[in-house]
Write the structure tokens for this entry.
Amino acid sequence: MATLHAYVHVPFCRVRCGYCDFNTYTATELEGFSQSDFVNQFAKELEISRGVLGNSRQLETVFFGGGTPTQLPASDLVGVLALLGDSFGIATGAEVTTEANPDNVDGFYLEKLREGGFNRISFGMQSAVPEVLETLERTHSPENVPKSVRLAKKLEFETSVDLIYGAPKETMDEWKRSVDSAISLETDHISAYALIVEEGTKLARQIKRGDLPEPDEDLQAAKYEWADAQFASAGLNWYELSNWSRSKQTESRHNIAYWVGNDWWGYGPGAHSHLEGERWWNVKHPSAYAGKLAEGLSPEADRETLTESQKFEERVLLESRLASGLDLSIIENKEAVAGLIADDLIDAKQAFQGKLVLTLRGRLLADLVVRRLV
Ligand SMILES: C[S@@+](CC[C@H](N)C(=O)[O-])C[C@H]1O[C@@H](n2cnc3c(N)ncnc32)[C@H](O)[C@@H]1O
Ligand code: SF4
């Protein structure tokens, strides 16, 4: 049976970064919903999930994401984790992560999380260069990143940082400074995402108006290659297109569970869930979410059952991004596979052993690889 995982979506941010279109709200956008009511609302959805899931499976991973989970007091995050533990049990050795903004955690906050059962923290670093942070409209002070990581390591958290490459105007030199700075933190894990210009964001409007240049795709690819080489020589190896880890043990088990299609319940406004090929997602606004729960209803907005062809496409899309590769026995189009080898997009040796694993060139053209297979 698939393993069980929990995601908790905390949809609050102090301010919205110009590039971000995540389901998150600043205090003035909450339309009467109070952040202090988050745990109460969560408890109501937890009750529903208990009814559906029973209690035969313990949680293998728990992930608090957002938004900014650390907008809430540490006692709220610990309280939610304790409720999950009471309902399902947290498996021995489970990975329990929270995302964090380097600006709103201190030693006391982190200590409370550690005592409450958290063992992994992912900090939103994005860049080490003040000018790039300004373009991204990040409000955190760059010096708070090493400070927070140091504190987390002292408390024996596993640590990770998120980087973004390809912000408008970001030069190769600036990106190199960010990569060097991230490596010098000696975290267990680094995620590096190409900046996506999302429709409807302030960044998209700035680009449309010509106030900022569009990200340059060739430069983004060069930045990826450079980062990958630096991470590798620092002992951080890629295990998914945008993720590098110091060892097998420090890979994000929670994200791997998504990528290989295990079962997870996503709690909170707008959160997505997946159980045995059935997918659903909650209403997005916290007030609408609370409204549904107040009526004794599920906060679900809609659901879908994956067809066999959707399941196949999703498997190809997600597993081909993994260094562990996609099982080639599910691909009927052998000609396409031969073409990918000929074009140096997938590793020939691994392909002969039955696994589709992207080459570095393939990682830069991952979307093309998937299009050729599905
Ligand atoms: C929910 S945030 C992490 C926690 C916290 N809110 C923060 O930003 O520090 C998740 C990550 O998604 C990435 N992200 C968000 N919007 C993005 C975009 N448009 N393009 C690329 N990465 C993005 C950022 O790297 C961010 O760290
Ligand atoms: S990137 Fe993080 S801090 Fe910025 S708006 Fe999005 S969720 Fe909030």
Q: What stands out?
A: The mean pLDDT is 96. The two ends are 27 Å apart (CA to CA).
